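QA checklist item 7 of 12: single-chain prediction sanity check.
[x] sequence parsed
[x] length recorded as 160
[x] structure emitted
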Amino acid sequence: MTDGVEGIIKQRSMVEVLLYVVQSLQDAQNGLAHIGEHLQDETLRRYFLAESLKRANFRAELENELHRVGLADVRVAVSLGGTLHRIWGDIKAMAGADDQSLLRTAEHGEEIARHAYEDALEEDLPSPVRHLLAEQQAHVNSSHDYVCQNLISSGEVTEA
């Protein structure tokens, strides 16, 4: 009997962890697209729009895991923090912010995404889910590094 209850508790914990990451991915997807639409540099613009699509794919992968364990309707609200972050990006864009300012905003958002994955991977998760999250985390870390490299190459000082 204890194994059954323990299994239910582990599954519920996994669902909560995945929903947390899905929400982070939804925020990132929206934020990356929004910043991409305002960037002047065409290479950066394409990169950010492609990253937005990549985050949508990551969400779909995690939502499939949630469907697999019986969660039929995966709806997560965009977080307040994500909404405020995008509004701040809007204000910068309307104020004529340059690409570097938008990249700083993006770097902050990527840092939030990195922490979501770090937090999730601290939890006791089934091996296939852990592997999927670790693969996604590696990509998010790479994306963060790309944004930081673009800030550094323009003379911007950041914490990497």
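[x] summary fact logged: The chain has five helices and no strands.
[ ] second reviewer sign-off
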